[in-house]
Amino acid sequence: MIVLKTLRNHSLYHKSPFFQQRRWKKPVDSAQTRLEGRTRDSKLDKLADNLRTLETILGVHRLMSTRKRGPFVSVQLMSRWRNILGLNINMGKFLHKYPHVFHVFTHPLKRNICCRLTPKFERLLNLEESITRECELDCVCRIKKLLLMSKNGTLHVHALRLVRRELGLPEDFRDSILGKYTSDFRLVDLEVVELVSRDESLGGVAAVETWREREYREKWLSEFETKFAFPINFPTGFKIERGFREKLKNWQRLPYIKPYERKKENVVRVRTCGGGERYEKRAVAIIHELLSLMVEKMVEVERLAHFRKDLGMEVNVRELLLKHPGIFYISTKGITQTVFLREVYSKGCLIEPNPIYSVRREMLELILLGRRNTRQLQQRDEIKGQGSNLVGNEDNGGTRGGDWVTPIFESFEDGNLDDNFGAVCDLYEEEFDSCSPNTSTENKTCIQG
């Protein structure tokens, strides 16, 4: 009996699928796992989410500006732009969320719902464009510095076009800057720009050198500690592992070829002892200087990768950024990934703002108002809502019922109905505002639009 039980148990052990040997697998350490397990910065994540909303609204403005029939578009037509803008909600609900940006009204003739930008937001857009035109010399200086950092003194115009708004360049920078300043730039091909003469005095000092000099003077640190160091600012909650401080200290002292140095004897040999680390540190310095040239000190990671070959940093950009969480921060809010320069931000705002950033910040604050502080907007809607009971008092110098229709038909004598939408709405609003809301009830007349 004992022999039969042992044989039975032995056969069950081998045939049962539940007794399988499992091997221990080493956890995967990749750029994706490091991106998911990084320490989050709530302030920069919130800023990236808000900037995503601003980009969507600017996309709506660009689509509205392509319409030539007037400064407004029907909401029915705007609903077709949902997939183009990447919206996950209805277009009507999106417009209703931002009354300080979009003004939704009923067309006086066709009686359909239309939308246009508010005067406040239009004023900020015009102000940003005028400041960009005034800072033309600063744009020239930024492009020169980018060309000085490149390997052969050339850059692809396509890469500049991708970061046009981040660099603060005008929309027609290819003609207004590259074509205008022929003494500085030369178009080799249709999509390649070259620096005419390398002025080393212009880009000889990187932005991090100012910090190093301040650390050397104010904190009395030695030159050995600050000559090749970078400002480190870890996010709240960052866990420092054992041996990390020593590695960081050695990395800060590691010498490297600075971004604007272009000498044959300074070529980095990757296969030598420490050559790979110096090559990566040079790539960190190039990205640091590139972000310092941006208006908001941030850019999308995918657009940053278009400068790899031109600037001579043949590395995995996202993996390199994740290796240095004290210098860069990658936010995954929205569809794309955005990298921020940590040292220039404090509580989600730039420490040293510039004019273009200040205007964009005002746009962002107007968006963040949402449905708040809409008392003036409500008063405007109430006044315009009385249009059906509007009075034309003849004794008080007002207009009689039906007098406002005559100039509208006169404006369409030589033109098409759709081509005069702007004139109709302006005329309608002038008549609307000129009427007194405190008129007697005996002379009230309904205006049928």
TrEMBL record:
PORR domain sequence ranges: 40-371
Top-level division of the source organism's lineage: Eukaryota
Entries under Pfam families matching the protein: PORR (PF11955)
Protein name, entry field: PORR domain-containing protein
UniProt organism field: Xanthoceras sorbifolium
